[in-house]
Design goal:
The complex is a heterodimer of chains A (115) and B (114).
Chain A lengths: L2 E3 L4 E5 L4 E3 L2 E3 L5 E8 L6 E7 L6 E3 L2 E6 L4 E6 L8 E9 L6 E3 L3 E6 L1
Chain B lengths: L4 E3 L2 E4 L5 E6 L6 E8 L3 E9 L2 E5 L6 E5 L5 E5 L8 E8 L9 E2 L3 E5 L1
Parallel strand pairs in B: 2-11
Antiparallel strand pairs in B: 1-3, 3-8, 4-5, 4-9, 5-6, 7-8, 9-10, 9-11
Classes of the chains: A mainly beta (115), B mainly beta (114).
Amino acid sequence: AQKVTQAQTEISVVEKEDVTLDCVYETRDTTYYLFWYKQPPSGELVFLIRRNSFDEQNEISGRYSWNFQKSTSSFNFTITASQVVDSAVYFCALRGGNTGNQFYFGTGTSLTVIP
Amino acid sequence: KAGVTQTPRYLIKTRGQQVTLSCSPISGHRSVSWYQQTPGQGLQFLFEYFSETQRNKGNFPGRFSGRQFSNSRSEMNVSTLELGDSALYLCASSFGQGGHNEQFFGPGTRLTVL
């Protein structure tokens, strides 16, 4: 079975604080892909990152960083020095490596950055 | 490059009616997926089309159907609307079907069933 769990439903932080959004996944596939999407109040999901199961290197993009650990089936997302514009719902997603596999989304974490 | 477009953006229907939503993928993308997003259930996969064929289907009743045209544009139809069908319907396109293809989402169609 494929499953993505985002245990944090809502998080509030004060601007400039760091925040980590947790994502735990379940899959029996040996090849799979993990994604993070951002959904701002406007509603449109924005792609942030894709990671494949063979690449456990952490990735940093500006204030965003991702920590992928196969040993704990986690793919956590950290925002450093948060800003008000980071306020959004963040979704973690999983997709198997075979053609035709659907995306499985977590329930999302609503992040509010307080000025 | 234009993004994924969805029409209409907002729709109000009454129970028992049917509705058709439209999605135009990013140019060159051949895979289109549909999702239903509600506060209680989150993002739920409806179906995926690739080259005019349904390749994958989520756990929704037969009232939900879709199709894809030769230009990759897709429509989804919901017949005999129920109050619980009120949701944001999101369309996403990707270049191919493989798992590595990220999906790019449209702004969604907000359907309200009265």
